[in-house]
């Protein structure tokens, strides 16, 4: 069977319409995953009582299990919990009212949160202890030191890894196809099945993912260079040399 | 008295580093602390602004007394807001420009309007001779310049006392002078200073009082004139003699 190039182009245009959904999944999960990551990193660095053991557990479990299982677990588990809770609290809402895409948001946020907590943690640990003390010495509270001194610098250190996380999330968004969210991969699957053109459809999907990944890498690369120019090399102690 | 320390004790594990330090510093006084390596000079300074928590003793600054045995978070903060520190390795905020380093404390901690803080910051940059470096990041400055920004950052807080921990000892010799000049200026402004240093010229010419510390105790304290020519304790004389070659150089 020859490669049906015109079909592939046709598929490309159809799938392109699904880029916004794939990117939505990617970036919504990125934002929540990042917030989880920062919180978990801080909990683990400061060994916050009660919370730090569960945080260690969370990171270990999530990093030790496949992403697809996270998607299934959330998709199957949350409705059970939700319905039980709804019944208990007497809500009228039922789990079937939850949009499917919410499950993928949750699954990917939880997944990337664990990975990003490690990224953020290494970023935070790269901040010079002396600068943190300087923050305290001018009278800042712990929160002010975190917000004004630690996190801005940690973010710069994290940026390359964060770029990897975004691309992983983009790839992870394809798992949404397993629970029937109509994003790029799911749609490619439909086109493939309806027309018996599997290879062409998936090549088209791959091209789109690759294109998105390149754009993301370019943007992140630009940000990295811009930040690096401002800060010199964070994590490197100030030397006495000019 | 602006700063009063009473019976400050500090141990790291079994290492008893400060063995009951009593010290009073008058308003506007410049006190220099000398002593061999490991005698606890840095630890003492860090106890004053509670970067290190003393095990016991009390610290009084500008009427605020904090009992180190029961340090309260709020009191720690208030104590730190009455002090400023200049670090051996400058410790400038590396993601902020020289000017931002100076205005950070006033804006974030003291809630001074931004415009006013910037104005003051520019004046201070001028005072330390770095008006043209306002928008430079620390990594674009020499060590001496970074330390001068560090001093300006401390001054910007209008502190009751500035603690200097060997501010020139990480600098190349040819850069030491520019920092000492600024420190002398600060001393002349009547700001209370506690300075740990090996720069004998500073101790001799600028300080009102020299303190010799060894093994976690204050061995002797006196005016520079007295201590350099007429030290009472054998240990002080031995220490000064050891560093005399340097000291002879300075004059
Ligand atoms: N954070 C710490 N943990 C454990 N021990 C410490 C700590 N800080 C200081 N010490 C110990 O306390 C003692 C006094 O140290 P300190 O830095 O105060 O001496 P110093 O007089 O400033 O010496 P130098 O002239 O070398 O700077 C040393 O024995 C040091 O090893
Ligand atoms: Mg020291």
Low-confidence stretches of chain A: 234-242
- Poorly predicted parts of chain B: 247-251
Terminal Cα span of chain B = 32 Å
Biggest sheet layout of chain B: 6 strands, mixed
Fourth-tier CATH superfamily name of the domain at 19-181 in chain A: MetI-like
Rough outline of chain A: flat
Mean of all residue-level pLDDT scores of chain B: 93
Architecture overview:
- The complex is a heterodimer of chains A (242) and B (251).
- Chain A has 242 residues and is mainly alpha-helical.
- Chain A has helices at residues 5-16, 19-45, 52-63, 67-89, 100-125, 129-137, 142-172, 184-195, 198-231.
- Chain A has a domain at 19-181: MetI-like fold, CATH 1.10.3720.
- Mean pLDDT of chain A is 91; it is low at 234-242.
- By secondary structure, chain B is α/β, with parallel strands linked by helices.
- In chain B, strand 4 (56-61) and strand 5 (64-67) form a beta hairpin.
- Chain B is globular.
- The chains are: A mainly alpha (242), B alpha/beta (251).
- The A-B interface holds A 128, 130-131, 133-141, 144, 148-149, 152-153, 156, 230-234, 237-242 and B 49, 51, 77, 80-81, 83-85, 87, 89-95, 104-105, 108-110, 137-143, 146, 153, 157, 170-172, 175.
- The site of magnesium ion has 3 residues of chain B, from helix 1.
What characteristics describe this protein?
heterodimer; A: 242 residues; mainly alpha; MetI-like fold; 9 helices; disordered C terminus; B: 251 residues; alpha/beta; six-stranded mixed β-sheet; four-stranded antiparallel β-sheet; binds adenosine-5'-triphosphate; binds magnesium ion
Short description:
With 242 residues, chain A is mainly α.
Topology:
The complex is a heterodimer of chains A (about 240) and B (about 250).
Chain A: H1 5-16, H2 19-45, H3 52-63, H4 67-89, H5 100-125, H6 129-137, H7 142-172, H8 184-195, H9 198-231
Chain B: E1 3-12, E2 15-25, E3 30-34, H1 41-48, E4 56-61, E5 64-67, H2 73-81, E6 83-86, H3 98-109, H4 114-127, H5 143-155, E7 161-165, H6 173-188, E8 193-196, H7 200-205, E9 209-214, E10 217-222, H8 224-230, H9 234-242, H10 244-250
Parallel strand pairs in B: 3-8, 3-9, 6-7, 7-8
Antiparallel strand pairs in B: 1-2, 1-4, 4-5, 9-10
The structure holds adenosine-5'-triphosphate and magnesium ion.
Adenosine-5'-triphosphate binds near residues 12, 35, 41 and 42 of chain B.
